[in-house]
Amino acid sequence: MALISSLCIFVLVAHFATPIVCHERHHQAALFVFGDSVFDPGNNKYINPNTSFQGNNNFPYGESFFKYPTGRASDGRLVPDFIAEYANFPLIPPYFEIGMEHFIHGVNLASGGSGCLAENNRGTVIDLKTQLKLFQNVTQLLKKKVGETESKQILSNAVYIFSTANNDFLAPLLGIYKEGGRKFVMFNLGPLGCLPSMRALNLQKGVTNGSCMEEATNKAKMFSSALPRMFKQLEKQLPGFKYTIFNFSKVFADSIHNPTKYGFKRSETDCYGTGPFRGILSCGGTMQYLFFDSFHPTELAYQQYTKLLWNGTPDMVAPYKLKSFFKLST
């Protein structure tokens, strides 16, 4: 259940002040990405191309921006892609598409299906524990390339991005902290019961008015309400730990209940698929839809959410705007 395990998001960006493939020293940001299908740019297609998770390797996925399917579960770019744009560096490629000598701009280790139900998908996804191990391999290579002192500085300036609702996210977070990570951004959870997939489940249960599944939304609220206390406690316990929380719950609910405010005409059904709360194949007009498939937003929705994360007001992202973690003024 991709978006159910996806709307809880950490964000992490490491500042590489050393050339790994260049001879001249220069400061560059590098983006390391962890999580599930909301962030997965195509890693899963290298693990087991024949699994059910690979539907997003087919058209019309990718149609709005890339013009071909990349493995992203949307019609175009995802949140990490827009963060890369705002931070003025290239799109971060999937882990399996880059040589380990060429991670100057970062690595995306996210894997669709690695969230709440990861235990059911063994062998077909990269779970969070494995993503952390792969990142640790990268940090070891970094130390060999630039030395202990320089790599420590690079990692301490990092903002590490997660998208998962897995309750075990704390262990990978602490693992990153142990490697030197200090800046973390968390998305709280939106009204998950209002996803087209959840509305369809409600219909199967005999709820015929198209309403949201309150049980799923209430669980998301419980998760979200615990986050501020948890992160404040981590801030007290871990020297140098910095965090910010993006109020995804607010903007996601608002875009569902007031779609025209965000430029959408449809927020109850999705653009691609079949069934009462899904389009028939591709809708041909993704700009009008909040959801591309029954779990994942469209590129336009991701772009609007990232703008609020990057430079939103305190009621949307606090105590820091994401751009401040990059030390950028614009």
Q: Would you give an account of this structure?
A:
This protein has one domain: Rossmann fold, CATH 3.40.50. The protein has helices at 79-86, 128-146, 148-156, 170-179, 196-204, 214-237, 248-257, 299-311, 322-325; strands at 9-10, 13-16, 28-35, 106-108, 159-163, 183-187, 242-246, 266-270, 289-291, 317-318. The strands form 2 sheets. Strands 1, 2, 3, 4, 5, 6, 7 and 10 form an 8-stranded mixed beta sheet that branches. The protein has a two-stranded parallel sheet with strand order 8-9. The chain is α/β, with parallel strands linked by helices and 330 residues long. The relative contact order is 0.16. α1 (79-86) links the parallel β3 (28-35) and β4. The longest helix has 24 residues, at 214-237. 32% of the residues lie in helices and 13% in strands.
> N-to-C SSE series?
EEEHEHHEHEHHEHEEHEH
> What is the total domain count?
1
**Rg, Å, rounded:** 19 Å
Mean pLDDT: 82
Amino- and carboxy-terminal Cα gap: 36 Å
**Looking at the structure, what is the overall shape?**
globular
Uncertain spans: 4-8, 11-26
Named CATH architecture = 3-Layer(aba) Sandwich
CATH class categorisation:
Alpha Beta
Beta strand count: 10
Biggest β-sheet: count, sense, barrel? 8 strands, mixed
Beta-strand proportion = 5-15%
The total of helices stands at 9
In short:
GO terms for molecular function: lipase activity. This protein has 330 residues and is an alpha/beta fold.
